[in-house]
Automatic annotation (TrEMBL):
<feature type="domain" description="SRP54-type proteins GTP-binding">
    <location>
        <begin position="290"/>
        <end position="303"/>
    </location>
</feature>
<keyword id="KW-0472">Membrane</keyword>
<keyword id="KW-0963">Cytoplasm</keyword>
<comment type="subunit">
    <text>Part of the signal recognition particle protein translocation system, which is composed of SRP and FtsY.</text>
</comment>
<dbReference type="InterPro" id="IPR027417">
    <property type="entry name" value="P-loop_NTPase"/>
</dbReference>
<dbReference type="GO" id="GO:0005525">
    <property type="term" value="F:GTP binding"/>
</dbReference>
<dbReference type="GO" id="GO:0003924">
    <property type="term" value="F:GTPase activity"/>
</dbReference>
<dbReference type="GO" id="GO:0005737">
    <property type="term" value="C:cytoplasm"/>
</dbReference>
<dbReference type="InterPro" id="IPR000897">
    <property type="entry name" value="SRP54_GTPase_dom"/>
</dbReference>
<dbReference type="InterPro" id="IPR042101">
    <property type="entry name" value="SRP54_N_sf"/>
</dbReference>
<comment type="similarity">
    <text>Belongs to the GTP-binding SRP family. FtsY subfamily.</text>
</comment>
<keyword id="KW-1003">Cell membrane</keyword>
<dbReference type="InterPro" id="IPR003593">
    <property type="entry name" value="AAA+_ATPase"/>
</dbReference>
<dbReference type="GO" id="GO:0006614">
    <property type="term" value="P:SRP-dependent cotranslational protein targeting to membrane"/>
</dbReference>
<dbReference type="Pfam" id="PF02881">
    <property type="entry name" value="SRP54_N"/>
</dbReference>
<dbReference type="Pfam" id="PF00448">
    <property type="entry name" value="SRP54"/>
</dbReference>
<keyword id="KW-0378">Hydrolase</keyword>
Length: 318
């Protein structure tokens, strides 16, 4: 496939390669064992491959789809060699990701016809939600956009404090109230402030409590409803942040949040410290929600726009 021959932006690609090193090494090591002593792709290789994908956190349903696709290619070409398996996997997984992730995005962009562009961020505590918001604010500001943050996670004082730290670091305004305040009230004030300042982007942090899904659902619904009193079609994006290092637990969180609210995009963080990078493939396919951003390091520049071709290239790089 020609798209794997593209020259990717070198600095960003190096960061991505490094960030996915543990996932890639683990996967290729397992793949090597799966095809050891085999010259062609047969039933035994496919069985072994199935196990490799599942244990790489790709997820059972997505794994079965990939295996079916490869089986179809094997039935057409009875002498498909194991040395071609890596390329075939690249092609089939990129094809699978294409069903949800449409473009070849490389930059942090927002629609020109939405001002302010309202981004509501959801996710449980500890997944890197506040850090993701800070890094997004940095990227949008770097493009010359005027950004306003809203601290609507009022359940924890630490959440408000952490967002303030990022607001100070990136030098963007933040709207906040006391801990325990009504999150919808904070969201309302944030949008009012953003409109008054003629801001381009508003990023609203929200609480990440899953112990009572009904309360979470009601709270997020109320936040949306109140925001729409200021900006009629807000929020324009509901971004769910997931910790890639938690593997299958990230699937469960995605399941709970998609039941609680309409999630329109995903950010998968902490991929640099884990061998569970396959979770990006599985979650994107399973929930049919595009992965918009991935976190591949702790640096402020290490939040990247997800590009399926670059990701697959790094994941399978030999």
């Amino acid at each position: 496939m020609s798209f794997f021959k593209k020259i990717f932006s070198s600095e960003k690609k190096e960061t991505l390669d490094k960030g996915l090193e543990k996932s890639k090494s683990s996967f290729l090591s397992k793949l090597g064992k799966a095809v050891a002593g085999k010259s062609k792709v047969d039933d035994e290789v496919l069985d072994n491959l199935e196990e490799v994908l599942v244990t790489s956190d790709v997820g059972v349903n997505t794994t079965l789809k990939v295996i079916e696709r490869i089986e179809a290619r094997v039935s057409k070409d009875k002498y498909l060699g194991t040395e071609e398996l890596n390329l075939i996997l690249r092609e089939e997984i990129a094809g699978l990701l294409s069903e949800t992730n449409s473009g070849e995005e490389k930059e942090f962009v927002i629609p020109a016809n939405k001002k302010p562009y309202v981004l509501m961020v959801v996710g449980v505590n500890g997944v890197g939600k506040t850090t993701t918001i800070g890094k997004l604010a940095y990227q949008f500001k770097k493009q010359g956009k005027k950004v306003v943050l809203g601290a609507a996670d009022t359940f924890r004082a630490a959440a408000i404090d952490q967002l303030q730290v990022w607001a100070d670091r990136v030098e963007v305004p933040i709207v906040k109230q006391q801990m325990g305040s009504d999150p919808a009230s904070v969201a309302f004030d944030t949008l009012k402030s953003a409109v008054n300042q003629d801001a381009d982007v508003v990023i609203i942090d929200t609480a990440g409590r899953l112990h009572n899904k009904i309360n979470l659902m009601n709270e997020l619904t109320k936040v949306k409803r109140v925001m729409q009193k200021v900006v009629g079609d807000a929020p324009h994006d509901v971004l769910l942040v997931l910790d890639g290092s938690t593997g299958q637990n990230a699937f469960e969180q995605a399941k709970q949040f998609t039941k609680a609210t309409e999630v329109t995009s995903l950010a998968v963080t902490k991929l640099d410290g884990t061998a569970k990078g396959g979770v990006v493939i599985g979650i994107s396919d399973e929930f049919k929600i595009p992965v918009k951003y991935i976190g591949v390091g702790e640096g402020i520049e290490d939040l990247q726009v997800f590009n399926k071709y670059e990701f697959v290239d790094s994941f399978f790089k030999q």
